[in-house]
Amino acid sequence: MAATELRRRGVPDATVARLPAYLRVLAAMADRGVRSTSSEELAAAVGVHSAKVRKDLSQLGTYGVRGVGYDVQHLSLEISRELGMTREWAVVIVGMGHLGRALAGHRGFFARGFRVAGLFDVDPAVIGERVGELTIQDLADLPGTVRGRDAIGVIATPESAAQQVADALVAAGVSSILNLAGGNLAVPDAVDVRPVEVAAELQILAFLRQRRDFDVDLERVAP
């Protein structure tokens, strides 16, 4: 995967995590007909300091031109190439509950270089159902779908089943996993796992809101 290659080159994980945000902002600029941008404009749109933007992009060997900035189209292509977005990636989703079905119907995948190639579950009650253009398959059929592909696995099961699914994905040759189920997964070192815990993100938002309210209260009582 492209992220693994970036790490091998010494690009910090924090920089890799910000690249999709830069790409999203650049795409919006391109849609508006913007041809060039500055690190300050990118920083304001992403919510970081301009020096961090310049450092992030320099990690990729990309530098703006003084007085001109960055060419939007060229920078988009460079970041897309670094992220592996100049090719199409197959995505397999395991767990066809509400979350898995919502992901399967997400229209934004294709526009960003991803194609949902397979839907899987272990529940006989849902195996064989159609979700959009795909049929839910038995998890046992996973190897046949991912064979010969650089597939990304998405775990959308309950947490109690996540490790079993991760084991099945690894056994099928999947080395990139997005874990939406929560919990820690035991996988080989060569397998990349990105955890996304919605509850934890909500807790962070609650903390930020509480802190902002506290700051407002302090301002009200300040002499």
Automatic annotation (TrEMBL):
Matching Pfam families: CoA_binding, Put_DNA-bind_N
SUPFAM superfamilies (alphabetical): NAD(P)-binding Rossmann-fold domains, Winged helix' DNA-binding domain
Recorded superkingdom: Bacteria
Protein localization: Cytoplasm
Domain CoA-binding, residue spans: 84-184
DNA-binding region: 21-60
InterPro entries in alphabetical order: CoA-bd, NAD(P)-bd_dom_sf, Rex_actinobacterial-type, Rex_DNA-bd_C_dom, Tscrpt_rep_Rex, WH-like_DNA-bd_sf, WH_DNA-bd_sf
Binding-site residues for NAD(+), renumbered to this chain: G95, M96, G97, H98, L99, G100
UniProt keyword list: Cytoplasm, DNA-binding, NAD, Repressor, Transcription, Transcription regulation
Family: Belongs to the transcriptional regulatory Rex family.
Annotated function: Modulates transcription in response to changes in cellular NADH/NAD(+) redox state.
NCBIfam families hit by this protein: PRK05472.2-1, PRK05472.2-2, PRK05472.2-3, PRK05472.2-4, PRK05472.2-5
Assembly, per entry: Homodimer.
Protein name listed in UniProt: Redox-sensing transcriptional repressor Rex
The organism of origin for this protein: Nostocoides veronense
Highest classification ranks of the organism: Bacteria, Bacillati, Actinomycetota, Actinomycetes, Micrococcales
Gene: rex
